[in-house]
Amino acid sequence: MPLTITVLGTASPHPGPDRPCSGYLLCGGGAEVWVDAGPGTFAALQRHTDPARLTAIWISHLHADHSADLLAAAYAFAFGGMTPPAPVPVYAPRDCARRLAGFFGRPDVGFLKGVLDFRDLYDGHDVRHWNLRLTARAVAHDTEAYGLRAECQGSVLAYSGDSGPCPALGELATRADLFLCEAGIDVPHDGEQVHLTPEDAGRVARAAHVRELLVTHAGPTLSRETATARAAGVAGRPTYAAVEGHIHTV
Known about the structure:
By secondary structure, the protein is of the alpha/beta class. It has 7 helices and 14 strands.
């Protein structure tokens, strides 16, 4: 089974008509992993798979535009007739379970243990599901956040999550076949930078010698077309825009 990534959503910082926030379906080696659960992505996910079949859920950070649809999944799994055969592992930054419980007004998530199995991410976290290996690296954001390197039978996908420029991004992306990278801001901010400009994305892709760059999560002052063109001007390799519904073979 080839490694594929299906774009469920790319919007930032809120969903738009027919454009959910960040979310992707990663498939390979017998595994199906929902990567980031931005608002609207659970509905989009159902166009491509039965959510009860998910092998795992992987959340880069707990900002709502990357994680809020965990609530929709919890309702579907616990009350909506989509109960998975075993609790679905949820790899996420610490405190994810407590936040989800808060939506239900519960002091803990014990009532969800039958459907979701929360496991804290950390820098260097490494897990294998069938023939799909997932490795997390801590990246530079204004909250605990991780990028992802997914490897399956010789194919490599790297995903930035939300991040400013940092060495970990280049390490994640090194010689990746496909680098899925955010371009969240139009111009660099003064002080700590917690998102990438399109040019930043292109520079990381070029330095890491990736085969292809897929630009996503363009901020509200950027169109995806403009962000992709600007990144391509720096990357020096094939560069594309992430578009909802598109499936990319890595």
